[in-house]
Amino acid sequence: MSIVPARRQLLQSPIPLGLGLVLGIGLLLVCFMASVGLGVADISLKTVYQALTDFDGSTDQLIIRTVRIPRSLTALLVGSAVAMAGAIMQGLTRNPLADPGILGINSGAALAVVGSVFWLGTTSLKVYAGFALLGAAIAAITVYALGSLGRGGLTPLNLTIAGAAFSALVTSLTTGILILSQRTLEEIRFWLAGSVAGRDLDLVVQVLPYLAVGMVIALVMGKQLTTLSLGEDIAQGLGQKTTWVKGIAAVSIILLAGGSVAIAGPIGFVGLIVPHIVRFWVGVDYRWILPYAAIVGAILLLIADIGARLVIQPQELPVGLVMPLLGAPFFIYLTRWQVRR
Amino acid sequence: MKQWIVVRPPQVPISFHLDRRVPSILVCLILATLVAMVLSVGQGEYPVPTLDVIKTVLGVETSNPDFAFIVMTLRLPRTLVAWGVGMGLAIAGTITQGITCNPLASPGIIGVNAGASLAAVTLIVLYPDLPIALIPLAAFGGALTVAVLIYLLAWQGGSSPVQLILVGVGCSLIAGSLTNLMVTFGNIYNVSQALVWLAGSVYGRSWEQLMVFLPWLTGFGVLSLLMSRELNALQLGDEVARSLGSRLELQRGLLLLSSVALAGSAVATAGSIGFVGLMAPHLGRQLVGPSHEGLLPVAALTGGFVVVVADLLGRLLFAPIELPCGIITAIVGAPYFFYVLIRDRNS
User: Fold this and answer.
1) Which of A158, A272, A332 sits opposite B153 (nearest CB)?
2) What is the dihedral sign for C-alpha B236, B242, B247, B248?
3) CA distance B253 to A139
4) Quick one: pLDDT at residue B94?
5) How far apart (Å, rounded) are the C-alpha atoms in residues B341 and B347?
6) Separation between Cα atoms, residue B20 and residue A145, nearest integer Å
7) Is the pTM for the entire model greater than 0.80?
8) Which residues of B touch A187 (CB under 8 A)?
9) Mean pLDDT of the region B327-343
10) Closest-approach residue (CA) in chain B for A188
11) What is the ipTM of this complex?
């Protein structure tokens, strides 16, 4: 099966694409400010500005600095990282269903965290982050290794089959632990839903290097990914060392997807939907798809998180659960519009 | 030696094109399943000797009168449910992979599991006081509703495999997210119960549940077998299938209906036992190749065998705690699947 064909591209040549990118960054900034300002305690933009430039220790400014900004920053980083990871995976596997969930990364991270709660009794988000990153990396490497053992080596088909099988196995183990221990279930179910609430700056800073390196690799690899997404034979015919490209792309996926699941828990859907939206606008060139995916992913997660905060005030929903409810109808609409027979 | 066996009864207008390995493999699978079933019925908190299991099932008096109750009332229906559910999921998975031309597809892709899970978990978590007997009914309703919704949303003057998959993923995500919402915020005791259901279990299933499930399994199982030639044609792509004279929409619709009905009734009976629908077709293809006339029954028996063995292991591994068999199907199925994947490299 091939990637959903982008029949109509709204922005095609470099100039509109570049302008679109600038516009996107502007929109992202607006969403970020809205995310910082909106919430149960409604805080004016002026206060937000003062909290950054002229900190006086008032409650509002304290909320901005210790709660809102880390949270919005988490949403922004996680949104762009997951979206970029999804885009790379879809290009690499040439499967429109690929996302960090499919290659077993989310489930690997979840098992590592659930296991650490069950056996070691960990309760801190920072320790979760370490285990999540570890689990994600092990999962990705295992799936990659298993995928390359099949006939024909690391084909898209082998990779996705290995990922789905590994994911099913690991999810079952996680459920098994949760059935054996109700204490673990109670401790971990909010983390498992995926959320950006209550993250502090230390946590973000702890994971930032992984995400940053992953993003840089991805952006540098844009051209190679475009070639590879045409098919391995074509890429090899054009003189590409595909094994290397796939290996480096895998490193970037581990850093991006692993890093984001480490701060926010498994947030599905962003990695699946954003590349589809973006391809619809910019076409098949990964040099454009990746930066667009980063911006659109961040905007999407920021908006979803604002929604998650405001819908049932003063309570709030985990953004990992709101995401599908918000995005899936749009996704269905998009596929209807895009994949005409 | 000839590679194919052609079955063409003189009176009935059907013809089957079987790989010559099919009959012997079918016999092996049936024998293996019988052995597994006898073992499964014998094992448990109160073991029954193998010979007595066979005697009891055949209706011969045994030394201990309790054996009849344990075997006939408790363990046999449970084991048969496991077998039937495994077969249903396997056939459904084979059909789904056939019509979507995607080896990743499993009944879950067309929303059956998500719909059933949402309905069942809603009932378990939000309305724990309602009778348990309602859960299968609700699960089947949920499966059917979501599947129909997906087909309607994917319909654009015709259906297309890619559309079905993408819309299916979208709908499954919505239903999955609502299910998670309940798992996250529900009463912790009810959530524990819901997890067992979500993992897929045949614990405590009775003759009644088997009898409700059986008509679905046989009816739609036979229908799928009769349509296996059409399934072969559909795999070649829409254009080729149409030029071979397939009435595409009708056939795809009927096959989808069978897949939904089989997976939906299986999930309603035993919760969402994952992995079987995804793996059994792959194992079947390894055994007898891709032609569906032989593949469907072989995959079905493989699926049934896997679930029977999984249920047995789930009871023995952490006794006295029982692990749901859905967890074992994954733990047992995945390494074997990877073995097949690797072995395939040298063939």
Assistant:
1) A332
2) positive
3) 37
4) 92
5) 11
6) 35
7) no
8) none
9) 77
10) B184
11) 0.74
